[in-house]
Amino acid sequence: MTDKPRKERKALRRDMLIAASCGVLVASMVGASFAAIPLYNMFCRVTGFAGTTQVSRIAPTHELGRELTVRFDSNVMPGLPWKFEPEVNSIKLRIGEVVTVHYKVINEAARTITAQASYNVSPTTTGAYFDKINCFCFTKQTMKPGETREMTVVFYVDPKIITDRDLDSLTTLTLSYTFYRLPDEDRPVAETTSTNSSKL
After folding, report:
1. Cis preceding linkage at 123, omega within 30
2. 0.85 surpassed by pTM
3. Mean pLDDT taken over the chain
4. What's the CATH code, domain 54-181?
């Protein structure tokens, strides 16, 4: 008679321990998945993996005679009512030459929307040599209803690309942007109060 309650208590403790261990494991996996995103992005920025371009603060010191054609691609994710396109479809540039190009963006919605652009370059192996000095993709873009905006990107192809024997035959690369919508930010309490007061 006394063994049964003892066995039940042991079984209950074992089950609670297993449940707690599973909970810790799940929480750890969720935390690791969130941490993996910025770590992956950092890895891509440093190595150029998956066509991720580099960020530079200074221009190269020299240009080379070798030319490349850079094509510009623009995309908008479903659910974002923006028109987004480059002002030119492609350009020719010398390796090491700093170039400025423009994109035109129109918010075709009847409300203010915030979005941000992701980017990559193809062939993906050229990401390590494609350097941006300035780009609209670095920050969130908030546009009012019907607003039209010119957005700028300043970039160059690093002269170090000529040391990569796998890219000796490279003549063309494509810079691609995709705008995706960001969640609407909550308005400040003071703004909400002011708006409601004006309606009284």
Report:
1. yes
2. no
3. 79
4. 2.60.370.10
